[in-house]
Amino acid sequence: MIRRLTEQDVAAYLELRRRAVWAVPDELTNPSKADAKARRLAATWGYFEDDNLASTATFRPLTMWLAGQVVPMAGLASVGTGPEYRRKGYVKKLLEHGLTNLHAHNQTEAVKNDPSSGIGWCLEYPFDAQYYARYGWQSLPNGLRIQVPPEQLKPVQNVQPQATSINLKHVASKRDVFPQLAEIHKGFAQGYNFALCRQDDDYINWDIVTDADDIDFGYLFAEGAYVFAYGERKNGTQTLYVEDCGYRDQAGRLALFTFLANLQGDVDVIDIHLTPDDPLLFDLHKFIKGKQVFFQARVVDVPVMFQNLPTAERLGHVTVKIHDKLCPWNEGVFNLVMNTEGNAATRTSKQADVSVDVRALPLLLTGISTPEQLTHYGLAEGDVAQLAPLAGVAGGVSFMARADYF
Predict the structure, then answer these.
(1) What is the pLDDT of residue 212?
(2) What predicted TM-score, i.e. pTM, was given to this entire model?
(3) What share of the chain is helix, strand, coil (3-state, %, to 5)?
C-alpha cells in the first residue's frame, strides 16, 4: 500500500532512515521547524508492507532556471528502503506513483488555465545513476569539485584589470542579507540550466541554505558575490570547504576568487565546486578530488515540458516517437511545433521517421548532445536529421550547486 506520510509516521520514518544509514533531516527533530516538517511530510510517500513502513520517496515542489526562465519542477529525494525490504520493487512503485501524481497535477484546470504552472521536469541526485537511468532519468554535466592550494584560484585576466581591492563584510546574521544574497544568486543561477531558484516558497531557500550548522565562514562582497564555508583541520592540513558561493558578474567573480586566493597562509587547501564552464576548472584539472556532485533530470510530461520551453526565434516542427516505459502518457508519437505563438506538443497518428528514448530529451534540448551523437548512445534511431529544430533549443550549461541538494 502507498500513502502519504503523516505526523504519526515520523517515528517509523526516522527509524527507517537510521537503519538505512541516512542523515536525519533537521526539521524532523527540531521543534522550531514545524512548518518545514509539515512540508516534508506533505511531499513524502511511503510504501507499507503489513502496516510497516518499508520504502519512502519525496517529490518536493521546487523551481529552477531553464534557458533563463523560471520553471516549476519536482525534486525527488529521500528515496530508500529498509534493508529487510529490498529487492521487492517498492522503490519503482513509488517512482511510478509519484510521477503519476505529477501527471495528474498537470491535468488540473489550474494548470490548463496557467500552463506555466505545470511540472514538466523531475530532478534528483542518485545513489546509483544507472538504477535511475532504467526509469528515464539522465545524468547531466555538473562541474567538478577540486581541492586546491588557495593561490591557484587567482584568476588570470589579460583583458579585464586585476582586482586591486576587495570590499567585503563578514556575515554575522545571515537573515539580514537575504535580499542581497537572492539578487546575486539570481544573476549567477539564471545562466545555468537546472539551477534552483531558491524562491521563498521553495524547500531550498536562503533560510535553509545559509543556516546549516556547519557553515561558520560567511562573506558578502560589494562587488556582487558571496561565499559560505567551514574549516576543518585533519592530519596537519587546514582545509576550507566552500559550501556555497555565487557571483553576479565578472567583477563579482574576480573579487570572490581573488579573496579565496589571498587566504594563502591561513588555509592549505580549498575545496570548491566549480561550474562546468569555469576556465579555472580546465586549468586545475589535476586538483579534481573528493566525492563529486552529480544530478539527473527526467521529463515528467512531454506536452507540459515542451510548452514551457523558450522558442527564441527558432521555428519548426518535428514528428517524433518517444519511448517511455515508466510513464505511458509520454509513450507514443508526438507532433512538436514551434511557432510565433509558442510551442505545442500533441499526439498524432502519423508515422514518425525518428524515435528517441525519453532520456535523450534533456541531452538534446540543452545542446549537450547532437542528434547524431544520440544514435551513438542508443538513445535515438531513424532519420535523426529531423531533430535539428530541437537541438539546443534550451541551450546552456547545466549546474546544480551542492548547497542546493534537496
Answers:
(1) 46
(2) 0.92
(3) 35, 30, 35
Of 206, 205, 203, 216, the residue nearest 177 (C-alpha): 206
Looking at residue 260, its pLDDT comes to 96
| DSSP letter string, 145-212 | EEEE-GGGGS---SSSPPPS---EEE-SSGGGGHHHHHHHHHHHHTTEET-B---TTSSS-HHHHHT-
Say if CB 305 and CB 120 are below 8 A apart.
yes
How many alpha carbons fall within 13 Å on the CB side of residue 220? 19
Q: Tell me how far CA of residue 157 lies from CA of 186, 201, 250, 262, 307, in angstroms.
A: 24, 39, 11, 16, 41
Series of mean pLDDT values for 10-residue runs along the chain (406 residues) = 94 84 72 75 94 94 93 93 92 98 96 93 93 97 95 75 72 79 94 90 66 69 93 94 93 93 96 94 89 91 92 78 98 92 91 97 96 98 95 91 87
Taking the chain, what is the end-to-end CA distance rounded to the nearest angstrom? 26
Cβ atoms within 10 Å of 306's Cβ, excluding its own: 23
**What does DSSP say about strands 69-81 and 121-124: parallel, antiparallel, or unpaired?**
parallel
DSSP letters for 378-391: TSEEE-GGGGGGGT
Note the pLDDT of residue 165. 67
What pLDDT does 338 receive? 87
Q: What is the DSSP string of 102-144?
A: HHHHHTSHHHHH-GGGS--EEEE--SSHHHHHTTT-EEE---E
Contact between 217 and 174 (Cβ < 8 Å): no
The pLDDT assigned to 213 comes to: 46
Sheet holding 316-323, edge to edge: 342-347, 332-339, 316-323, 354-357, 380-382
Q: How far apart are CA 64 and CA 71, in angstroms?
A: 5
Evaluate whether 202 touches 65 at the Cβ level (below 8 Å): no
Give the angle 274-280-284 at the CA atoms, nearest 5°: 95
Supply the DSSP symbol for 222. T
Which three three-digit cell numbers place residue 95? 517512482
Tell me what pLDDT residue 214 has. 47
Which residues, 6 or more positions from 125, have their beta carbon under 8 angstroms from its beta carbon?
77, 293, 294, 295, 296, 400, 405
In angstroms, the Cα distances linking 276 to 142, 221, 282, 346 are 6, 23, 9, 35
